[in-house]
Each structure stands twice: as C-alpha cells, then as structure tokens.
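Subject line: Sequence and fold of a protein, written as structure tokens
Enclosed: The protein record, placed directly beneath this head.
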Amino acid sequence: MLKERMQAAQDRLKELQAKVADASETAQIAAMLKKDELDERIANAKGELAAAQDKARQSSEKAQSKMNSSLLKAQMTINAAKEELNAKVEAKDKASRKNHIEDLVSYSEQCEALAAQLLVESDLALLQAAAEAADYVATYGEDA
C-alpha cells in the first residue's frame, strides 16, 4: 500500500517534471517572440513552475505524513501485542506457581496423615510387644 502511494507520488513528480520541461521549451520558443509576449510567457512559466514545485512539495509532505502515520500505527499495534503477550505469560506463570504451592500444601498434608498413621502403628506395635513380653514372662517365667 505504501509502495503504491510512493509510486503514485513518483509518477506525479515525473508528470510535474515533464510539465517543467515543457514550460522550459515554451520559454525557449517565447524567446523568439516579441518582448512583451516573451515577458508574459516567462511570468506564466515561472508561476506554473512555482505552483508545480509547491504541489510536488505538498504531495511529498502528504506522502511522508501518511507513511509516518502508518509506521506509528504499526508500532502501536506491535507494542499492544507485546503487552498482551506479556500479560498472558504472567497470568500463566501466576497460575502455574499457585498450582505448585497447592501441590506442596497437599503433599505436606499427606505426609502429616502418613506420619499420624505411622505413630498409631508404632504405638500398636509397642502394645503388642508389651503383651507378648507379658505372655513370655507368664509362660517361661523370665524376662525376654
């Protein structure tokens, strides 16, 4: 799109240059005419040249302005996309870390439950050992 605009601007510039060249040729032909007519044509040619130069300058400024605007818009779009991507990455990282914390707490709770179960089993084993020791003393009359 910008290339097409730039090409159109170059085409208009070439057209203006052709007009300027045409105006120059007209000025040369006018040199052969009367002095008054020559002065009038020179003035017209200078006016046309100034108008053509002004139009070319305006066209160039307009094309440059549009190109700068398009570049600024593209940069803003890129920046917005970067910000959106960073927000998504941060949200994903936040969720991942929260899940990891929850997993660690759950693991801790399971370890506590296992430790409580092992304490109960330890107490039970000691009670069974005491009962066996008492039975041993009763049966054999000596300490085990």
In short: The chain has a mean pLDDT of 84. The first helix runs from residue 2 to 30. Helices lie at 2-30, 35-140. The chain has two helices and no strands.
